[in-house]
Amino acid sequence: MHSNKKLLDRAKLYLILDTQVLDHGFLLEVLKGSVRGGVDIVQLRDKKSSAKEILGFCRKVLKETRHQIPFIVNDRADLALISGADGLHVGQEDIDCPAARKMMGPDKIIGVSCQNLASALKAQAEGADYIGFGSVFKTQTKPDREAMDQDLLRQVVRRIKVPVFPIGGIGRKNIGELIPLGVTRVAVCRDILLAKDAAKAAKELKKNLRG
Question: Which CATH number does the domain housing residue 137 bear?
Fold first, then answer.
């Protein structure tokens, strides 16, 4: 098995598999295509399925990613542990990073959602392996959240030493706006999930993240 942390350090394109967008069956097909397209890390965001359904889907994802591509579970530390996922992602309203680390252990990846520099610095100080930072643009996932000041994103990318994955409304049409800010990694949801060809969408996004 590859070191989770080494795979994370190299990761450029982070795919969010969101059941608010597609059901498990379609998400699995998108995952297969996006893996061919070069996606580097995958997260399941599932706010509506039962624990049994989520666990079953996690096991299907892990058969595809085989720990060669880190698989992260959003929110559900219990299901991340039971399924053998590679890590856990938590938001500001979830368990904090030290508690997540205590539950998951030293070798798993812990990611934290942040919306400002102070929370990103705090998460880094508490041992987060990466930061999900957004919403960068308006997004259907968080419709009540305004797009952020791009100068804030520039500051975070410059000051945070762990990997930063900007998130929120990012796709092939606007990813070019982020590169001058120092962005070398992104998290993407709908632009891959709803693409006619997930592999092609992933490849096109990845091309923007060279360097």
Answer: 3.20.20.70
Query: Is the residue at 211 inside a domain?
Result: no
* Residue 179 resides in a domain: yes
Residue 163 lies in a domain: yes
pLDDT tens across 4-60, in order?
989 999 999 999 999 999 999 999 999 999 999 999 999 999 999 999 999 999 999
**Edge-to-edge strands, sheet with 13-18:** 164-166, 130-133, 109-114, 87-90, 71-74, 41-45, 13-18, 186-188
Q: What's at 27, amino acid-wise? A: L
CB 138 within 8 A of CB 127: no
Do the Cβ atoms of 65 and 92 come closer than 8 Å?
no
Are 96 and 111 within 8 A, CB to CB? no
Can you list the pairs that 71-75 forms with residues at least 24 positions away whose Cβ atoms lie under 8 Å?
71/41, 71/42, 71/43, 71/44, 72/41, 72/42, 72/43, 72/44, 72/109, 72/111, 73/43, 73/44, 74/43, 74/44, 74/45, 74/46, 75/45, 75/47
Report phi then psi at 90, rounded to 5. -125, 150
